[in-house]
């Protein structure tokens, strides 16, 4: 079965996996780290994410019709390759499980007050299973469709937020801090921009020409711009001192504004929650697909057989943490693992590719 994607679909897969659960608390987290200097830090973090995107895209482009499972074995040997794939499987599995749990708690708190968290999570996993079992091409089309809707509504919403904000809340634009402080904050901030490691299970074919680099890098830059727009618009409305008190800072900001001229669209929080749920769905679906894909390679089991097992285990694991804080803490640790999978491992594989001159042999 051909599971390759077009260049545009790959770009929207990158968007779908990066823009997800974390955008809800992004303004609070960055405001805590660097205050009104958030835009500088986000530019630095976007630069790091662009490098990671290029490295992963290069590896997939050079090793045509191969995923991480195949080309890591060629470069490092069977044992190390299995270890690498296992690490990716663990990250994908834990993240897809716990991001659904975290999202379910937000939905319960804001919409379905009397609905048990387990039932919201179960509904999520049922829909995710249906999407994953249809294959990568269907997932790619979902990301393309949902991504377009999410982008339009997000741009519309946050441009409107700027009209309700105060310029004074964004000053000073540049804080008098050391370069070391900005660099440290950029490295920390890069975590919400990770997720590019999903390219590890996307095989590039002859139709994925050199334009795939342009699509992937431009999408990563656009996500960085979108994050700057989200954070700056929220700070302009709430101010740094206020926004750091709300974990779901994006939703709290939306509820602060009431735009009379919009009539039916005056309550923007409903639209924001809707596109946020769509974003969480695409993120969790991609990570769930990656978990099933890598698990099938690790345990030598057919994809369609192992997928329901992965989904059931994910549902069980999602219910293990007792509190919201436990979920958030685990997701933070997974973020550090994502730095290894999204940056360190692909850089090592790139170095081996260059040292062995593998890219010159094909």
Automatic annotation (TrEMBL):
Its main location: membrane. InterPro entries: Spore_GerAB (IPR004761). It is found in: Membrane. Keywords: Germination, Membrane, Transmembrane, Transmembrane helix, Transport. The chain crosses the membrane at residues 9-26, 38-62, 83-103, 115-133, 145-162, 182-204, 216-240, 270-289, 301-321, 333-352. GO terms for cellular component: membrane. Pfam families: Spore_permease. One of its GO terms (biological process) is spore germination. The keyword Membrane applies. It is a multi-pass membrane protein. It comes from the Bacteria. Belongs to the amino acid-polyamine-organocation (APC) superfamily. Spore germination protein (SGP) (TC 2.A.3.9) family. This is Spore germination protein. It comes from Tepidibacter formicigenes DSM 15518. The lineage of its organism: Bacteria, Bacillati, Bacillota, Clostridia, Peptostreptococcales.
